[in-house]
Write a structure and sequence with these properties.
With about 325 residues, the chain is mainly α. Helices cover about 60% and strands about 0% of the residues. The chain has a two-stranded antiparallel sheet with strand order 1-2. Helix 1 packs across helix 14 and helix 10 packs antiparallel against helix 17.
Amino acid sequence: MQITRIPYSEIERTRLRGVARLAGEIIANYWPMRNFVHHNPLHGLEHLPFEKAVRQGEQILGAKGYLSGDLYREYLRSGRILPEQIDAALRPLACDKYVRVGEEQVTRLAVLRACLLAGFHGAVVPDETVVQAEIDAAPDRTFLEALAGHLGPALKPLDLREQMRAEAEEARAALVRRVTPSAWCDHVLGTHITEQINGEMIKWCGAFLDEGQAPWPMPGREKGFYLAWKSLAALELSPCGIPLSQRKIAALPEEPEAALFESLTTLGIPHDTWQEYLSLHLAALPGWTGFIKWRSDQTEYDWQQAYPADLIQYLAVRIWYVRELVEKACQEHL
């Protein structure tokens, strides 16, 4: 089997470590948990404004930051929420502004209240014939037609092929910020890649991060998480049904940064989306990644000194499984 090594430099190594560190900010430190306590799952986002932190938590952690609009309206009908509380919440957003409708002035507060209470999700686009009839009857029809002619060239759509290409690139970049290729395959192709990968990572994290509880400790842990996995996983016959897995794992780079860079490049993940993409993978198992993040920060911690682990090593292993299983699924189904 021919292995094509992707060019990789010290600059890429440094950049990738920085990206992984930023990607890990979404993960809260859940350790040490020697007592029953509460941990804020958005702890890593506390530097952001509340609304932005909730949006990122929804996107990356798969959480729901707010109740549905229908449920809020039900609470209002039942008296659990009072009308004056609605006004108090909306008033800072209204800013005492208003809009003119004919001869009447409508406050922005009234518009916001109507949208919230009636569940409007956007403006209703009128039928083209209705719009044309309004223009024909308007006293300033000549001005409107002249304005439309002036704006026409600016609103002219792109060439269809260029538009499709631009939209495809935009959609691709937006997609990997919201969903991983493995999750896409699960949703579209009916695979179970995410479940398989999570199972593998739980197995290896549980074995490596053991702190004396296991009667049979994992061998080779002094090499670090990535190299310990690499040496042992290469002995497995076919994890998750990956063909030629032993050769592929043995051929991986010795440095976890190089392995991660190779997998991201092979998957075709755009460089400017790496942080969001890696955050999605770290958020898939926040308990384990939170522990690894905590250990990597504890340079004086005995277990970390003896058996080093960090998020780069974790991601190098996880994204390799993604790379192989996504390719396998696409070859089989597409």
